[in-house]
Design brief:
Blueprint lengths: L10 E9 L12 E13 L4 E13 L4 E6 L4 E2 L3 E6 L5 E10 L2 E10 L2 E7 H4 L14 E3 L5 E7 L4 E3 L13 E3 L4 E4 L19 E7 L4 E4 L7 E8 L5 E8 L15 E7 L5 E3 L6 E7 L5 E7 L10 E6 L5 E5 L29 E8 L2 E8 L3 E3 L7 E8 L2 E8 L2 E9 L12 E2 L9 E8 L15 E8 L8 E7 L13 H8 L3 E6 L8 H5 L8 H14 L4 E11 L1 H12 L6 E5 L5 H4 L6 H7 L12 H9 L13 E6 L8 H12 L4 E6 L9 H18 L3
Parallel strand pairs: 12-14, 34-35, 34-36, 36-37, 37-38, 38-39
Antiparallel strand pairs: 1-2, 2-3, 3-4, 3-5, 6-7, 7-8, 8-9, 10-11, 11-15, 13-14, 15-16, 17-18, 18-19, 19-20, 21-22, 22-23, 23-24, 25-26, 26-27, 28-29, 29-30, 30-31, 32-33, 33-35
Bound molecules: ligand LN4I5W3F.
Subunit structure: Homotetramer.
Keywords: Acetylation, Cytoplasm, Hydrolase
Main location: cytoplasm
Length: about 725
């Protein structure tokens, strides 16, 4: 069985930033020339880093259809750029750059104009605030509509601190010593600062910062309530103030990554008065506020707090002038008659409004596919894709959309197309900017499953689920295919029919791959999600096994050559499956698996997840009675470890705040004690995602070889 390594160089589309750089009228034909930059990341094994690069494309159009499109020049690596944004007119560009100077990491804020750098501010030396936030959760970099100011989010400045025993300081000196520049506080060197957990480590207290382009003066905004952490900010109409999402962080912070259920609200702070006003509900979670092109309305997503960490969203609209809030698309409990199952999206694209400010576009999971959905003011229009696969809206500018489209056997390509007029969305036509070649030797299909009656959920009856099956087309006559089963993590997430490098490579190696979206996954209605908490370790495990058993009945697969691979809650399921079906799986690979909820709750950044998924209501002053801990243990894979026979390969990230590595080590020790074949790979400098180039590449190779070895291939 050969392994092709060059696949690990496959580029991934990161973001697409359309810019109207040039608009021309040729002869008396009204052609617009539209340039845009697409940003990509690619694994570079030699440099052991994900390199970021951009590629420019040119599009000729006549405001209704694309006449010509294609690449304009070659790729250019983007080094050190953390954030960049063009001004609304395209005349200027702001860049946040990190650079290591004499061993010290510094951040610079650059303002570019046409062919020169107007300004470069050394933010580290200026010391107005801490590091600028470059993440998707809080981060933003936004020009004012007037193009005179720039808004961004940074860590609040912390007081300079020194030891009580700093040499040369007398005991009776003032506790606070005034130095020439700033106050120095004694004895706070070891102060604990809570942060927002996995992937947001050392991000604790964000502040809104505004740069005055002309004077280069940076203002850290006052007036934000002390119990609120602001982020995802933008300028209000007429630049009178800032609109932002504020997360409550009292009594303590919980992990935010993959946790859309954190209490948060929309706020507005007026720059003149400093007055801060709450614009949305006090008891829900919001994200992705987006101002309409006519500056009259703000659309945003909203869902419930506590409970499942990802849920079906409401699409809400705030009218800036009437101050009224309306629900554009509500939560969908079960699939509607037109098949729409609700909005499941972690965020709206940076531009999502149609030019007429009447429609909002988004990509969202619909069962096992990612499609582009148009929401109208009163009803929901949908794009029904002619081709299968998954589409992701990257950006829209004056109704010209840029999307990424892929499928399990075809890497992502970029497509452009004009949004048709209202009500004719199904007449969408796309122009592909750069063809990617489908992998002719991989076939895929989506399978639907209805659990057997005895497994129906009495509280949420009649739910179904599905799976995506990838198969190598070339099969040796008379042979049967080995099968790799991959349940996703979350558990409230979803595997959609898009290009996933690792599964495509496994297929190229001759494995069939089954991606299971068990009950509790996103994209199937809110009831589907709510059916799982309290039933983890049984309902999800049985759904996966039911899908596997159903697929094996097709006859193309070797029942003696089945492996299971999963990360996080997917690792939880993998470990449960080899414990509950001990002779069935011949190899198991578990990445940062949840193995024991009762020991995880004390060290994870999401203790509420352990409580909720075990079937209890969470509140911050919950008392973990023995009965609750016992229930958590009983629902954990460690409970079944004594039955395990399957060889297990564990992969742990040293810096994992979500599912701390001690979970994997606890399971590792149990297997060692039982003399079950187990190997543990430890990845320093890697967190829960194990997504750095070293961990991803080494992890894939070792997983593939582990499966080959233990399936005797
Ligand atoms: C809410 C949450 O983070 N739950 C975790 C237990 C979990 O399963 N998270 C997944 C979304 C996850 O992290 N999946 C990645 C790492 C994967 O490899 O599957």
């Amino acid at each position: 069985m050969k392994i092709t390594c060059n696949f690990l160089h496959s580029p991934t589309l990161a973001v697409c930033t359309p810019q109207l750089i040039w608009c021309d009228r040729l002869n008396n034909l009204s052609h617009v020339i539209f340039f845009f930059l697409s940003e990509w990341t690619q694994r570079d094994l030699e440099r052991n880093e994900n390199v970021k690069f951009c590629r420019q494309y040119i599009v000729f159009h006549d405001d209704k259809s694309v006449v010509y499109s294609g690449p304009s020049g070659n790729c250019t690596e983007i080094k050190g750029e953390l954030l960049s944004v063009d001004s609304p007119s395209g005349d200027m560009k702001a860049v946040l750059r990190e650079s290591t100077i004499k061993g010290e990491e510094k951040q610079f804020l650059e303002i570019w104009h046409k062919n020169r750098k107007l300004k470069c501010l050394n933010l580290t030396t200026l010391s107005k605030h801490g590091k600028v936030y470059e993440d998707d959760q809080f981060g933003c970099m936004v020009w004012s509509h007037s193009e005179t100011h720039l808004l961004y989010v940074a860590e609040k400045k912390r007081p300079k601190t020194e030891s009580y025993f700093q040499t040369g300081l007398l005991a009776d000196e003032e506790e606070t010593i005034k130095t020439d520049k700033e106050e120095t506080v004694l004895g706070q060197q070891f102060e604990y600062y809570e942060d927002w957990g996995e992937a947001l480590v050392n991000k604790s207290s964000p502040v809104l910062c505004v740069l005055d382009i002309e004077s280069s003066n940076i203002t850290v905004l006052e007036g934000i309530p002390a119990n609120i952490s602001p982020g995802q900010a933008f300028w209000s109409p007429s630049d009178t103030g800032l609109v932002f999402v504020g997360w409550w962080h009292e009594p303590f912070r919980l992990g935010l990554k993959y946790c859309a259920n954190r209490r948060s609200s929309l706020f507005y702070v007026d720059l003149a008065s400093g007055k801060c006003e709450q614009l949305s509900s006090n008891s829900s979670a919001v994200c992705s506020p987006r101002l309409s092109p006519d500056h009259c309305r703000i659309v945003y997503m909203e869902c419930g707090i506590f409970g499942p960490h990802q849920q079906c969203n409401r699409l809400c609209m705030y009218d800036w002038y009437t101050k009224q809030t309306s629900v554009v698309v509500d939560v969908v409990q079960r699939a509607r008659e037109d098949g729409f199952t609700g909005i499941y999206s972690s965020m709206l694209s940076s531009r999502c409004w149609s030019a007429d400010s009447q429609r909002v576009l988004m990509s969202c999971a619909q069962r096992s596919a990612f499609i582009i959905t148009v929401s109208l003011d009163t009803q929901l229009g949908r794009f029904q894709k002619s081709e299968e696969g998954s589409w992701s809206l990257l950006n829209i500018h004056r109704d010209l959309m840029v999307v990424s489209c892929s499928s399990p056997n075809c890497p992502p390509d970029l497509r452009v197309g004009f949004l048709p007029e209202k009500g004719s969305e199904s007449k969408m036509s796309w122009v592909t900017l750069e063809e990617t070649q489908p992998q002719a030797d991989i076939s895929w299909q989506t399978l639907n499953f209805s659990p057997p009656p005895e497994e129906d959920n009495s509280q949420y009856p009649g739910l179904d689920f599905n799976a995506i099956l990838l198969k190598p087309k070339e099969m040796t006559a008379g042979s049967k295919l080995p099968l790799v089963v991959m349940p996703h993590g979350g558990p409230h997430s979803v595997l959609v029919s898009e290009w996933i490098l690792s599964t495509a490579v496994l297929c190229k190696m001759g494995f069939s791959v089954l991606l299971v979206n068990y009950r509790g996954s996103l994209g199937f209605g809110q009831d589907n999600i709510l059916s799982l908490p309290g039933n983890i370790g049984t309902q999800d495990v049985k759904d996966v096994q039911f899908a596997v058993d159903s697929v094996l009945k097709q006859g193309d697969f070797d029942e003696q050559k089945v492996a299971v691979v999963g990360g996080s809650h997917g690792g939880f399921l993998a470990c449960h499956l080899i414990g509950q079906y001990p002779e069935f799986y011949k190899a198991c690979v578990a990445r940062n698996p949840v193995t024991n909820l009762s020991s995880m709750i004390g060290c994870t950044d999401i203790p509420d997840w352990c409580v909720v998924e075990a079937g209890y209501e969470y509140n911050t002053d919950i008392h973990l009675e023995p009965a609750i801990l016992e229930q958590m243990l009983n629902k954990s894979p460690i409970k079944h470890v004594s039955k395990v026979k399957t060889p297990v390969l564990l992969m742990l990230g040293e810096d994992d705040k979500r599912v701390p590595s001690k979970q994997g080590i606890e399971y590792y020790r149990a297997l060692k004690a039982l003399q079950v074949p187990v190997r543990l790979l430890w990845y320093p400098g890697n967190n829960h995602s194990l997504s750095k180039v070293d961990a991803e590449s080494d992890g894939f190779m070792n997983a593939a070889l582990w499966i080959i070895q233990h399936l005797s291939l």
